[in-house]
Design the sequence.
């Protein structure tokens, strides 16, 4: 058990020492920023080699936004107001903002 713990700790320390968190963040950001142009490219290919309906369906899938339920909206607004740790005060302020918007 100690050997496994030592291996895990060694891997974690090397990851931190070699700037693993910033590099993994960069990889995630690069992936996200390249995903949308790739979806546009696939939609264009569907329009050229497929039917107009297929291209329209691909465009709708790439640009659709699903609305959040009220509870999730409240939590998301509270998170934006307070940061990582959501406080009761942030939830109350979020509820007040949501009531004012309706």
Sequence:
């Amino acid at each position: 058990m100690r050997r496994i713990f030592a291996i895990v700790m060694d891997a974690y320390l090397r990851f931190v020492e070699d700037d693993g968190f910033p590099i993994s963040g960069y990889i995630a950001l690069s992936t996200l920023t390249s995903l949308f142009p790739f979806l546009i490219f696939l939609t264009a290919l569907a329009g050229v080699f497929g039917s107009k309906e297929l291209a329209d369906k691909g465009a709708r899938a790439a640009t659709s936004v699903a609305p959040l339920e009220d509870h999730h909206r409240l939590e998301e607004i509270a998170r934006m107001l307070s940061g990582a740790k959501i406080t009761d005060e942030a939830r109350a302020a979020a509820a007040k903002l949501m009531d004012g918007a309706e």
Notes: The longest helix spans residues 20-49. The mean pLDDT is 84. Residues 1-65 form one domain. Helices lie at 2-17, 20-49, 52-63, 70-82, 88-101.
